[in-house]
Amino acid sequence: RPRILSGMQPTSDSLHLGNYLGALTSWVALQDDYDALYTVVDLHALTVGPDPALLRERTRRTAAQYLAAGVDPARSLLFVQSHVPEHTQLAWVLSCLTGFGEASRMTQFKDKSARMGAEAANVGLFTYPVLMAADILLYDAALVPVGEDQRQHLELTRDLAQRVNARFGHTFVVPDAHIVRETAKIFDLQEPTSKMSKSASTPTGLVELLDDPKVVAKRIRSAVTDAEREIRFDREAKPGVSNLLTIHSALSGRTVAELEEHFAGQGYGDLKKELADVVVGFLEPFQAKVRGYLDDPAQLDAVLAEGAERARAIAGATVDRVYDRIGLLPAR
Ligand code: TYM
């Protein structure tokens, strides 16, 4: 079976609705047909200088949310990136094959470093996409399910794979991004032209999966909508309403066309009220599952240990192959 890999950063106590609808639901859907590896990318999280105790806690919480969403460790490998040292080994090799200008063109780096101020940004933030390429290429992943904001990083990963293959002979599978058009970008509830984000959302524009459902319902009921009254999907003219319809459709499983018909003649208040119910109906059982996993950290750690062991077997073979291709003298 072809392989897939994806990961999320443990930079917050909770994943948000963008992470869930943009990526996590695809992870769960794809694990039937693919040999899947899902990782909590704690090394990537170091780029924002987290508190050590908090990072450890958030790493477990992120894994618990993968499980609660339906990632099934009987079918998919679930592991913590830093438990597999090959990620940093391959990242170094790839960083020596990445142009400085090429890395400088990554828009996520440009945005983040601009937000922090150039002096505050660290070198890890700059080489972040190279580590991400290593995550993917280590496992010969053919497909990488992510949201739209990762597209450019996937392009870099493909370029690096092709570069290595051209220069040293076939070494890597060239991966494709798997981006679901409808949910590729979930927007901030208060600012529906910018993406929902852990670091850049407005305080009330973000829906975190572990937020109090009452708070979430209130945020949805006070989401920004648009001029006129009609409930119809139109990304350009009606970004607020379109975002709400997208979220409703993804969680309820009803098409946007069905929802437009269902809400015909109703007002924005009706849409928001019903959507609040849909979201809360999803969050309550989700949060109960997360609590269940967090109540048994030993069991959670056992799942992660098993995942890491199996991931290391694959990753170790890749690093051996790469080291050999590029001319590093084998240790004996
Ligand atoms: P991260 O942790 O920022 O986000 C995790 C996933 O959520 C998606 N996403 C969204 N999708 C739709 N709408 C949104 N508003 C939204 N916000 C976030 C992201 O696209 C991502 O799929 N660099 C990655 C982590 C990573 C990775 C990897 C991913 C490291 N190594 C290897 C895939 C393969 C990141 O920062 O994601």
TrEMBL record:
One of its GO terms (cellular component) is cytosol. CDD domains: TrpRS_core. L-tryptophan binds at residue 135. Keywords: Aminoacyl-tRNA synthetase, ATP-binding, Cytoplasm, Ligase, Nucleotide-binding, Protein biosynthesis. Its EC number is 6.1.1.2. InterPro entries: aa-tRNA-synth_I_CS, aa-tRNA-synth_Ic, Rossmann-like_a/b/a_fold, Trp-tRNA-ligase, Trp-tRNA-ligase_bac-type, Trp-tRNA_synthetase. It catalyses: tRNA(Trp) + L-tryptophan + ATP = L-tryptophyl-tRNA(Trp) + AMP + diphosphate + H(+). Pfam families: tRNA-synt_1b. One of its GO terms (molecular function) is tryptophan-tRNA ligase activity. The keyword DNA-binding does not apply. The keyword Protein biosynthesis applies. ATP binds at residues 9-11, 18-19, 147-149, 186, 195-199. It is found in: Cytoplasm. It comes from the Bacteria. GO terms for biological process: tryptophanyl-tRNA aminoacylation. A motif ('KMSKS' region) lies at residues 195-199. Homodimer. Belongs to the class-I aminoacyl-tRNA synthetase family. Catalyzes the attachment of tryptophan to tRNA(Trp). This is Tryptophan--tRNA ligase. It comes from Actinotalea ferrariae CF5-4. The gene is trpS.
